[in-house]
Amino acid sequence: MRKFLLVSVAVFALSSAAQAANTSTTVQVGVVNGSSVTQNGLTNDSSSTSQLGILNTASTSQGTSSPSLNNVSTVNQVGVQNTAATGQVAFGNNGSSITQNSFGPPALQNNAAAVGQLGLGTNTSVISQTAH
Q1: Of 68, 70, 81, 106, which residue is most buried, by most CB within 10 angstroms?
Q2: Within its chain, how far is the Cα of 108 from the centroid?
Q3: Pick from 42, 20, 2: which is nearest to 10 by CA?
Q4: pLDDT tens digits, residue range 29-44?
Q5: C-alpha 52: how far from its chain's center?
Q6: Is the pLDDT of residue 63 over 60?
Q7: How far apart, in whole angstroms, are the C-alpha atoms of residue 47 and residue 127?
Q8: Distance (Å, rounded) from C-alpha 126 to C-alpha 99?
Q9: Cα dist. 47→37, 38, 60, 81, 97 in Å?
């Protein structure tokens, strides 16, 4: 009975490890906002970053050191100058969404976005940029 119990515990531990996932939520409100997220999970990496400020910078790296099964990254920025970069490596699917809304003096407004994806499944990237 003890051996069966120990085997059951070991199987449960392996099952739990196989389901390992990373979830990150970042919300920043300020003059200068900077966010850097790095995730290397066995199954699913999920990151959400929202920034409201004058100068916004966000960097998201998922599965680049150790490929994940699936990656999802969302970045929302509202500011005068917005910069966002996302890198994703997966055995399955990658999904990236970047929304940037720039306001203020026209000469200072700037939105810059970059996405790099390597996946054996489906790669999806949506970038929406608005300058007023």
Answers
A1: 68
A2: 27
A3: 2
A4: 999 999 999 999 888 9
A5: 17
A6: yes
A7: 16
A8: 8
A9: 8, 9, 8, 21, 10
pLDDT at 12 exceeding the cut of 50: no
Count of C-beta atoms within a 10 Å radius of residue 108: 11
Q: Tens of pLDDT along 89-129?
A: 999 999 999 999 999 999 999 999 999 999 999 999 999 99
Q: What are phi and psi of 87, to 5 degrees?
A: -125, 130
Cα 98 to Cα 57: distance, rounded to the nearest angstrom: 12
Give the pLDDT confidence score for residue 54 in this predicted structure.
98
Evaluate whether 124 touches 96 at the Cβ level (below 8 Å).
Answer: yes
Rounded-to-integer distance, Cα 37 and Cα 58, Å: 8
- As a dihedral over the C-alpha atoms of residue 32, residue 56, residue 61, residue 75, rounded to 10 degrees, the angle is 130
pLDDT for res 20:
65
Residue found under tokens 């929406």:
128
Order of strands across the sheet with 32-39? 32-39, 55-62, 81-90, 110-119
